[in-house]
Design goal:
Layout: H1 4-24, H2 29-46, H3 52-85, H4 88-99, H5 103-121, H6 126-137, H7 142-151, H8 160-173, H9 179-188, H10 192-211, H11 214-226, H12 232-236, H13 239-259, H14 265-282, H15 310-317, H16 325-344, H17 346-352, E1 361-363, E2 373-375, H18 381-395, H19 400-415, H20 430-434
Antiparallel strand pairs: 1-2
Helix pairs in contact: 1-2, 3-6, 3-18, 3-19, 4-16, 5-6, 5-8, 5-11, 5-13, 5-14, 6-7, 7-11, 8-10, 10-13, 11-13, 13-14, 16-17, 16-18
């Protein structure tokens, strides 16, 4: 079969089918994703003639990658259950209520600003695993919390994990020793690191322009889909605060990209914006005159809901003492510090990413194929999340039964998500077929 158009349709078939099942037929992901996997497996085997050993190896690789992601999700769920059971979340909510009870404001501060900072520190989806549960615990519908966590995965992403997409993805992908690259460097009169920094700055400018509207999009989506009146206009009413919050992050974001390079735009932009907006919001600056909130929980649509019951966790924890706002926020502060330190201190990062066991668990040449992957257990945000939980147990003086309950709750919630295993479509030949339809004939082949 050499019809590129038909091959392209077959290549996107697994994704298209999953999209129809999820969005069109409202299937749960635990049913839709396995269907997509079976279709990917079938097209790889029958259309691209991928050998059974390679298919099995890719499946094993996807299973391993899925476990590493689930490990992060478990850590995030455990932290959520911990701060709820200890009473910290109630104190955090009271602190936010003192700033603003407006759900649009809370979503922008936590999702956009705190999420951008976490993306800059850790990347790899960590903001969604941290910010979304925090919003959920503050009383957001589960679907709204997830929506906010995913929308912000935009402007900060190219500089996530201390600039990894630029410093690793772009820098390695351009092949600096190639003749065209050397000619380009000579034309510009630059060294290769300077060229990468220039690319990073250009990316920052483009993404900052897009980022100006991201907080406003968050606000509009919240009011349009989760508000009492389902009014998009209600989200636009907060535009002065939304634009201000966007600029509080994007202006330092671009400045840092120009002055310091690709490592810190999201991290420092998010941190500066978070500090500035939290301070000015506490003084009432640009706060909306009309407060937006969600309708009573009894009127929420069933599809808005998750299966995490914060009230049950609170009830199971029993009596809890009063704590300061700083103590309540301590788990998230500690998490942010650990994420930053393990990413910017080179000796520490080298130890945690060492290729020796147990720091890195290798899975090389699975089933005798060239499919390989690794698991960096101690560098994973999941490990840091569990460490933070352990410290929180002591700091918040949690009783043993409450600690045990947090693990039970997190484990139970995890079981509902452990379904869609990544079959890595690039090993099925799909990527190399999809690419020519949207790029140039020079797109590199699947290896």
């Amino acid at each position: 079969m050499d019809n590129l158009g038909l091959l392209s349709l077959l290549a996107v078939a697994p994704i298209a089918v999953v999209g129809v099942l999820l969005a069109g037929l409202r299937w749960p992901a635990k049913y839709a994703m396995p269907v997509g996997y079976v279709i990917a497996l079938a097209t790889a085997g029958f259309v691209w003639q991928v050998q059974p050993a390679a298919l099995a190896a890719a499946t094993i690789e996807g299973f391993i990658i899925a476990l590493t992601l689930l490990y992060i999700v478990f850590g995030a769920l455990l932290l959520l259950a911990t701060v709820i059971a200890s009473g910290a979340m109630d104190r955090i909510k009271a602190g936010f209520d003192n700033i603003s009870t407006d759900r649009r404001v809370q979503a922008i501060i936590i999702g956009w600003l705190f999420g951008s900072f976490i993306e800059g520190a850790s990347g790899f989806g960590t903001p969604a695993a941290v910010a979304a549960p925090l919003l959920l615990a503050l009383g957001f519908p589960a679907m709204a919390a997830v929506m906010v966590g995913l929308i912000i995965q935009s402007t900060p992403v190219s500089f996530g994990a201390v600039g990894t997409p630029i410093l690793v993805g772009v820098a390695n992908g351009l092949e600096k020793d190639s003749a065209p690259m050397q000619a380009r460097l000579a034309e510009l009169g630059m060294e290769y690191p300077q060229y990468i920094a220039l690319i990073g700055f250009n990316v920052a400018v483009i993404h900052a322009l897009v980022g100006i509207l991201i907080p406003l999009i968050i606000s509009v989506m919240l009011t349009g889909f989760f508000g009492e009146r389902r009014s998009f206009a209600e989200g636009l009413k907060i535009w002065p605060f939304a634009i201000y919050a966007s600029l509080a992050m994007t202006v330092p974001y671009v400045f840092v990209a120009y002055v310091l390079g690709p490592e810190f735009p999201s991290l420092l932009g998010g941190l500066f914006g978070l500090a500035l907006v939290m301070f000015t919001s506490s003084k009432g600056f640009l706060m909306p005159k009309e407060t937006f909130s969600f309708p009573p929980r009894s009127r929420w649509e069933q599809r808005w809901l998750g299966n995490f019951d914060a009230n049950k966790v609170r009830e199971g924890a029993g009596e809890r003492g009063e704590m300061s706002l700083l103590t309540a926020w301590a788990p998230y502060i500690l998490l942010a510090v650990l994420l930053v330190l393990t990413r910017i201190i080179d000796p520490l990062q080298s130890v945690l990413t060492s290729t020796t066991v147990p720091m890195t668990i290798p899975f090389a040449d699975i089933l005798g194929t060239n499919v390989s992957t690794t698991v960096q257990l101690f560098y994973s945000p999941g490990t840091l999340l569990i460490i933070v939980c352990a410290v929180t147990y002591v700091l918040h003086k949690m009783p043993g039964h409450a600690i045990a309950d947090t693990w039970k709750v997190a484990g139970k919630q995890l079981l509902g998500t452990a379904v869609a295993l990544d079959s890595r479509s690039r090993w099925c030949g799909c990527s190399s077929v999809r690419a020519p339809t949207s790029t140039t004939p020079g797109w590199p082949p699947c290896r």
